[in-house]
Amino acid sequence: MKYLVTGKEMKLLDEGTSQQFFVPSEILMEQAANAFVRELLLFSNQKSRYLVVCGSGNNGGDGIAIARLLRQAGIDASIYLCNPNLSGLPGKQLKAYQAYEYPIVDSLDQFSEFDVVIDAVFGTGLSRKIEGNYSAILNRLNSLNALKVSVDIPSGIAADDGQILGCAFKADYTITFSFEKLGLYLFPGASYAGEVRCVPIGITLESAAERKPRALYLEENDLFEILPKQIPNSHKGTYGKLLIVAGSVGMAGAAYLAAKAAYRTGTGLVKILTPEDNRVVLQTLIPEAIITTYGKSIEQSTVLEALNWANAVLIGPGLGTDQHAKQLLKLVTANVTVPMIMDADALNLISEETDQLLKPHLDIVVTPHIGEMSRLLNAPVSYIQTHFVETAREFADKYNVVCHLKDARSITAVPYGNSYINIAGNSGMATAGSGDVLSGIIASLMARGASYDLAAAAGAKIHADAGDFAAQTVGKTPMMASDIIDGLTKLAYLR
After folding, report:
1. What is the DSSP string of 221-254?
2. Number of other CB atoms surrounding residue 317 within 10 Å
């Protein structure tokens, strides 16, 4: 697992390194500049002309140090000062740079003479909208036909949430220090960061003391540890029994996709509770599943029997919002005693009375997309998009559920705990049924005994990795949800 930090968390880590390990800020800045230059020279042409555009804060100080080190390595580098009146560490760096009599560019018109431009204007502490001269500088840099590299974070991107503060530098690469920043992976900031490379400069988790960052992302190696293991001496019951309450008349597809995804993720037995009209279709599409149906009326005994059978329950895909759906949701939520995931129409229905989620001693995962979360909170989509992490965390805390909020990026917020950001996946996954596949994957892990928080986080990663494999196989534009399921068979950690 790797941590993603906010601007405030990074500042605390910086300060903790100086206080606990007695590393002066001057040394940290020099270590950052050295690490940046080493990484930069791995992908840029040393015969190029480099321009470092420096602001007046510590990010600008890093930039001046970077230009000096490039010069000392025999590379043609110059700086441009957005504000020549520097103090503190940036002022000291400028004094050293000037003592060597290294060049300073004084006009934006000269920017086009350089092959590589390095953005060191604003760092992670930026919180105001960029306007005036700074806006003109960033727009000029973006217009250049040059390799563009940012120091720590592209100027104009909010480190906490990836929002654009007026305008922003559009980097080909971002070289960030010690910890990747949350804003580098949340959209729209992720579109401006280019390829992110993180270099160590001596700031570690120990610098945080008791105040560790709350956001993380899972790596492939983590899944080998999280996923339930296959057991040589086992049978189908060993790998969990999942009940999927899904589908409505003429809407069997969602139930099929969720069930097949669950089987492909390793569930031993899947039972689908669905209208009688869907029986033949589902038995044809997925004969491995157990089909239990209801007709014009729903027998409570049928639902209770299915609930008593299951190790985990998924409710919602393709369920509809009619009276049958409402009755099913009421019966399931009133009687379920095993971990439950609520998706799609279950969330649309429960948005009419969200306090139904307040079920003590029950592990619940909700998987809303932006529109469903808008209905759950009765809040504008635009607000949720600009308060993405905050919204998921507050919902998880308020209702004591794991909230997996979906958009181009997704976040799994654990009540009063960590938040897992999924940074894998691709635009081809924005296709009908993709969410049903995801809910089936998460439910499968829950049925197999994974804790509900890690099941949601790991499920999102598995879903995204399978989607990335599908993109390589069939392409993004032609991708269908069934291609994502096919991708599950190619993942090493599921074999």
Report:
1. HHHHHHSPPP-SS--GGGG-EEEEE--BTTB-HH
2. 31
Look at residue 298 and tell me whether its pLDDT is greater than 90. yes
Q: Taking a C-beta distance cutoff of 8 angstroms, is the pair 66, 36 a contact?
A: yes
According to the model, what pLDDT value does residue 19 have?
Answer: 84
Distance CA 450, CA 443 (A): 10
Q: How far apart are CA 362 and CA 36, in angstroms?
A: 48
The whole-number average pLDDT for the span 471-495 is 97
Given a cut of 90, whether residue 275 has pLDDT beyond it is: yes
Mean pLDDT value across residues 80-84: 96
- pLDDT for residue 75: 98
Cβ count near 234 (within 10 Å): 11
CA-closest candidate to residue 341, choices 274, 429, 226, 437: 437
Helices (H), 58-144: 58-72, 88-99, 132-142
Give the span between the Cα atoms of 24 and 28, in whole angstroms. Answer: 7
Question: Could you tell me which of 278, 333, 283 has the C-alpha nearest to residue 303?
Answer: 333
Average pLDDT over residues 407-434: 97
pLDDT at 231: 85
Amino acid present at 344: A
CA neighbor of 428 nearest in space, from 381, 463, 392, 457: 463
Biggest distance spanned by C-alpha atoms of the chain: 87
